[in-house]
Amino acid sequence: MEIIEENGEGSENISEVQVNSQPSGLSKTAQKKRLKQLTYEARKAEKKAKMKVEKKREGERKRREWEEKLASLSEEERSKLIEERKGQRKERMEKRSEEREHKIQRLTKAKENGQNIIIDLEFSHLMSRAEIQSLVQQIMYCYAVNRKCSSPAHLWLTGCKGDMEIQLQRLPGFDKWIIEKENRSYIEALEDHKENLVYLTADSDTVLDDLDPNKIYIVGGLVDRNRWKGITMKKAQEQGIQTGRLPIGNYLKMSSSQVLTVNQVLEILLKFLETRDWKASFFQVIPQRKRCEADSGEPQGEEDEEECQEKDNESGRKKQCIEAASNSWKS
Ligand SMILES: C[S@@+](CC[C@H](N)C(=O)[O-])C[C@H]1O[C@@H](n2cnc3c(N)ncnc32)[C@H](O)[C@@H]1O
């Protein structure tokens, strides 16, 4: 297998032989993983470069078209057209800035009275670089979806520190996000509200039937392909906080596990807050291929990581012991 890696200073060929021949001391599985990662990064860079070229070409085509049009007009018609275009641009900018202002207002209001939802970022030590990257993308998606909502939630990122924070800060505009960024853990930051904390986990025996505005729901910020099975349940039990799982089984049959990605869970919660209808929320967010029943709902959202998760579950990935990891939140 041979792939091309774009690195900005020319291209570099990466082949299986090359990766294997590196005196890295990596196991065969780790080498395969590394190759997969390199392939992924190379394809991503290639796609990005292609899109950049296409965008430039399209811009040039439009400019040429515009210049040709202007050249075919009289002086008077030309001035009129230019003024018209300026007016349209101004209108567009005003509309955009109005929309932006509305979004800011909605998010600011949500800070006071929106449903509190936490993304718990205390698992970065259990994830690979690629998994952290995937989580960062999911968080970005969560923020974007919440920002668009007519009644957004009050989002929190707790345990936001170290590598996780560094990666998030690389996102354009992250510093301006209207979100609660907290480097302490939720158990510390919200110690006065402990009785209202509810950890959402697919392993809970408690099935949610509604969302309580007084409760603070926690989603595990974890991309683990369910390698760390049961880890959030264990954490919540050790901390003595409530747990709940989404009532997926009451409304649809899944073709595999009911463990969803962070962004899917958040999107379901947001849809439910809007509609108070679990079934509609599940059908709109959970990809059709993950469901057994035929329906007409369109799959939405970020699915890449979830696909990986599913694939790995299918291949019967070995479950790791969660004991060692739990020490990090006991202290
Ligand atoms: C990719 S999952 C992480 C799975 C992880 N092994 C665990 O033990 O939670 C990301 C998070 O989404 C939430 N989640 C996923 N599926 C869920 C479900 N069916 N019900 C409730 N929460 C769910 C949980 O908070 C979970 O930690």
Automatic annotation (TrEMBL):
| UniProt biased composition (Acidic residues) | 300-309
Task: Cite a single GO BP annotation.
Answer: tRNA N1-guanine methylation
PROSITE patterns per UniProt: SAM_MT_TRM10
Query: Molecular function (GO) terms listed?
Result: tRNA (guanosine(9)-N1)-methyltransferase activity; tRNA binding
**Composition bias type Basic and acidic residues, residue spans:** 51-71, 310-321
Which reaction is catalysed here? guanosine(9) in tRNA + S-adenosyl-L-methionine = N(1)-methylguanosine(9) in tRNA + S-adenosyl-L-homocysteine + H(+)
Q: Which UniProt keywords apply?
A: Methyltransferase, S-adenosyl-L-methionine, Transferase
InterPro entries tied to this protein: MT_TRM10-typ (IPR028564), MT_TRM10-typ_sf (IPR038459), TRM10/TRM10A (IPR016653), tRNA_m1G_MeTrfase_euk (IPR007356)
Q: Which GO terms describe its cellular component?
A: nucleus
Where does the SAM-dependent MTase TRM10-type domain start and stop, copy by copy?
Answer: 103-293
Instruction: Please report the name of this protein according to its UniProt entry.
Output: tRNA (guanine(9)-N(1))-methyltransferase
Biological source species: Citrus clementina (Clementine)
Ranked from the top, the taxonomy reads: Eukaryota, Viridiplantae, Streptophyta, Embryophyta, Tracheophyta
